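[job 0412] stage=complex_fold ligand=phosphoenolpyruvate status=START
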Amino acid sequence: PQTLRPLIAANWKMHGGLSWTSKPSDFEAIYPSSERRHLDVLICPPATLLASMNDGVFLGGQDCHAAVSGAHTGDVSAEMLKDAGATYVIVGHSERRAGGDTDEDVHAKAEAAKRAGLIPIICVGETESQRDAGQAEHVVSEQIKASVPDIANYVIAYEPVWAIGTGKTATPDDVDEMHNAIRAQVGPDVQLLYGGSVKPANAESLLALKNVNGALIGGAGLEMESLAAIARAA
Ligand code: PEP
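[job 0412] stage=complex_fold status=DONE, emitting structure tokens
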């Protein structure tokens, strides 16, 4: 049984626009908030869409700069995301880490989120070669040590890099083992999300695990029907 409130989070990555067909208001029609009082649903669209969305789900950013403002061309601060309607912000997504974000950067971004009044979703996860070398738990535990600042309210998303956007999902046994290890490290109050090719077909077996408190969803979160089907499994 889940003791923490489930969080079902969609990361739209660089997809979507003002005239796009997928809209949070459709989510509300498919799975009304009156039927999902037991869980939270979050959509993280591109920052350009945040201010135009206000439809019964939580909204989040996909990344933020560590500074409040300044000469950082192309970047968005946590304060700007908050101003545009965000409640959460993803930090340390593997696609950002692959682009150069270090644990130190992720730590600073998570602190910025807290400073702005946002809840950071801090992503961690091992590569395939690290898993094959038996290093998965060690890698994740070191990432958590280095990326998570001393703040009260944050979410961890465990996303094995080899399972993101690949159609390969970690087995429930692997996820269970990793989430139990993360739980032992971070304590009882932190929501732990699994991410990596979550779809309606595998959501139930993953969300049934004791220390899986939700999911971070890429591809399947672009369609409101499949996002709702995953949310219904929580
Ligand atoms: C993600 O981008 O965080 C993710 C898990 O993507 P997908 O669900 O497409 O694997």
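DSSP finds nine helices and eight strands in the chain.
[job 0412] exit 0
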